[in-house]
Specification:
heterodimer; A: mainly alpha; ABC transporter involved in vitamin B12 uptake, BtuC; 17 helices; B: mainly alpha; two-stranded antiparallel sheet
């Protein structure tokens, strides 16, 4: 171990070379942590019950969407409340591409995952690029509300376009997923349907988070940060605002589209009502709770929000005054869950603005300097 | 002609609800620089409170009591949740109000239950003659009440000492503070006014169909209204509110005949479409102040 290595181990934010600072995994801790997480995540495929694995798979798909929102809102500073709209575009594109061509709803019968996944992402990205000019003209809260308008308009279109999206209260079935001729969404010879889907989503999450991490430490990522920190100053030093805002929206929407395409493979059906304001708010909550402008934070936040209903479902066993029935007196589980969302958002913003990622940094710093933790 | 007249009156009536809500949004924005997403929850709690109060007291007394109670609630929210966030990024504070909205709404929903609660307004759905055309009383009452309230508030801002303080804070918080204005009090008062206005708007909305758990969605229509009028323009909020109400009513009446392919409920999204089109031409709304940009 060289002396510089020892210094680095003792001081988390100390980088001894530019190359090291810019590396994909720029600290030894991160290398260990990422490797361990990956091994655990892979091992879970076979060691965890299917009902929990379902949640984890949904968490992976949601995390892809959260990374997307963090690119446009966390890194590029363009507040978007319209993320649910882009998720919807991805979901419907994938469902239409892979849908039964002879069925009642629009469908083309292309069931290969890579094909509909890329198309779903690409179409969402295209829509994002079309919306981006609004972001060039508008700033701050004006932009937030206009993107919110997208959610309402999208919901209306999908509700009315019943040939494509199905009846508003029934919706349409999720995409059909085959990989090289093998069906992924039915139980296979060696793995159950949930295990197959979980592996698929895990692999996609790893690939897409690596790509995102690479993007934000590149020239483009630095341009995003410059726009976020002060757009006029960025323009003055030569960052093309229009170009980079379009890129930010397109990339973010691509991730949202991919997330949308994957999200309903587990529940197997979805309606236009899924893509509402609440979904946009949940994505915002994920990146705020996870950590703004961090990839790992987006993933942590997404899993946190996805697993929250499961955690609150366990609460009545511990706290007897919470009622499990939906109609009975007292506080119900659903209410507790909704209140927790609200309180978590408020609490994190008041007390821990850096989110789960910030807590992790503090815990790490505490142990780095232990026993001199001050 | 009769149909057009009825349609306009309905539009002005609904529009005055949007105007009241938007007025509250703009007052908060002018004092704190934040859009409060808690307005839907305040509106809902006001309306629900009235449905409970009318069981024991007169309807008008109930409205006044509910408005006062919601104003208190709004002041409490401002003091406990938003005051510690002064100086933090605007967007973060805005998201906090979203959290407040969710919490309040869940609690209020428990008091609504699954049924529709009647608001008990004395005029109900009865109609009256206006210029020889039969229109619903409630729309006329909504419009007139809103105009009176707006006039009172404008007079308050223009002539009272506290109104002057509020205008000073809207102009520059630090300078106002240096002149001895209690900025905290101004924040609280603006939330109180917004809460009271939201209550009255909530009562107006529910005079037709009563209060149910979906009522809050109507408050979100105030968002395109404030953007259309300009975030910092009180007059703009009123004009844009009435405008959106009339456009929506016109589309609801004639849209199906002119463009049936748009679907039956196209009126629901017209506020957002109008907002987007106007913003492409005027990025700061119709009456908003252009932001001075410097490095």
């Amino acid at each position: 171990m060289t002396s510089s290595m020892r210094v680095r181990l003792g001081r988390p934010e100390l980088y001894t070379s530019y190359k090291q600072d810019m590396a994909l995994l720029n600290t030894p801790g991160k290398k260990v942590f990422v490797t361990v997480t990956l091994i655990v995540a892979l091992a879970m495929t076979f060691s965890v019950d299917d009902d929990v694995l379902q949640l984890l798979a949904t968490g992976c798909a949601t995390a892809i969407g959260a990374i997307g929102l963090n690119i446009v809102t966390g890194y590029a500073g363009q507040v978007s409340l319209g993320h649910a709209f882009f998720v919807a575009i991805g979901a419907y594109t994938a469902a239409v591409m892979s849908g039964n061509p002879d069925g009642q709803l629009l469908g083309f019968g292309i069931t290969e995952v890579p094909i509909w996944l890329v198309t779903a992402g690409a179409l969402a990205a295209l829509t994002g690029a079309l919306v981006a000019p609004l972001a060039v003209r508008l700033r701050g809260l004006y932009l937030a509300i206009v993107t919110l308008g997208l959610v309402f308009i999208g919901q209306y279109v999908f509700r009315e376009w019943t040939d494509m999206a199905g009846p508003p209260d029934i919706g349409r079935p999720a995409p059909v997923a085959t990989l090289f001729g093998t069906r992924l969404d039915v139980d296979g010879p060696s793995m159950t349907r949930v295990q197959q889907l979980y592996l698929l989503m895990l692999v996609l999450l790893v690939v897409l988070s690596l790509l995102a991490r690479n993007l934000v430490r590149s020239r483009t990522g630095r341009a995003f940060a410059a726009i976020r920190d002060r757009d006029i100053a960025a323009a003055v030093i030569g960052v093309n605002l229009t170009r980079y805002k379009v890129i930010a929206f397109a990339v973010s929407s691509f991730y949202a589209g991919v997330a949308g395409a994957l999200l309903y493979l587990i529940p197997q059906t979805f309606t236009a009502g899924n893509f509402n304001l609440l979904m946009s708010v949940q994505f915002i909550a994920m990146i705020l709770i996870g950590g703004v402008a961090t990839i790992s934070g987006s993933i942590m936040g997404a899993f946190f929000i996805t697993l929250l209903p499961r955690i609150t479902a366990e609460l009545p066993a511990v706290l007897p005054f919470i009622s499990t029935s939906a109609t009975g007196g007292g506080i119900t589980v659903v209410q507790v869950e909704a209140i927790l969302y609200g309180l978590l958002i408020i609490g994190f913003l008041l007390f821990e603005p850096k989110g789960l990622f910030g807590i992790w940094i503090r815990v790490r710093n505490y142990w780095k300097a232990w026993p001199f933790s001050y | 002609m009769t149909e057009l007249m009825q349609c306009l009156v309905r539009g002005l009536g609904d529009g005055s609800v949007y105007a009241l809500l938007a007025f509250g949004f703009v007052i908060i924005y002018k004092s704190m620089g934040v859009i409060s997403f808690a307005q839907p929850a305040l509106m809902l709690s006001g309306a629900v409170l009235v449905t409970y109060l009318v069981a024991t007291v007169n309807f008008y007394v109930a409205v006044v009591l509910a408005a006062a109670a919601v104003a208190l609630l709004a002041m409490g929210v401002e003091r406990t949740v938003l005051r510690p966030m002064i100086g933090k990024p605007v967007f973060v504070i805005t998201i906090i109000t979203l959290g407040v909205d969710i919490v309040i709404r869940v609690i209020v929903n428990a008091y609504i239950g699954l049924d529709v609660r009647p608001i008990g307004a004395p005029w109900g759905l009865s109609t009256t003659q206006l210029l020889g055309v039969e229109v619903q009383q409630r729309h006329v009452i909504m419009f007139v009440t809103t105009m009176v309230l707006v006039a009172i508030l404008f007079a308050f801002f223009r002539y009272s000492r506290m109104g002057l303080a509020m205008r000073a804070v809207a102009f520059d918080q630090e300078v106002a503070l240096a002149q001895g204005v209690s900025v905290g009090q101004v924040f609280m008062l603006s939330w109180a006014i917004a809460g009271a206005l939201a209550t009255i708007a909530g009562v107006f909305v529910s005079t037709g169909a009563g209060v149910d758990q979906q009522l809050w969605i109507i408050a979100l229509k105030a968002l395109p209204v404030i953007i259309l009028g300009g975030l910092d323009s009180l007059g703009g909020a009123v004009i844009a509110g009435l405008m959106i109400g009339v456009v929506e009513s016109l589309v609801a009446t004639y849209g199906a005949a002119i463009a049936p392919w748009l679907g039956g409920e196209f009126a629901l999204v017209t506020p957002y479409l109008v907002m987007m089109v106007v913003l492409l031409v005027r990025p700061y709304g119709l009456f908003g102040t252009r932001e001075v940009i410097r490095i």
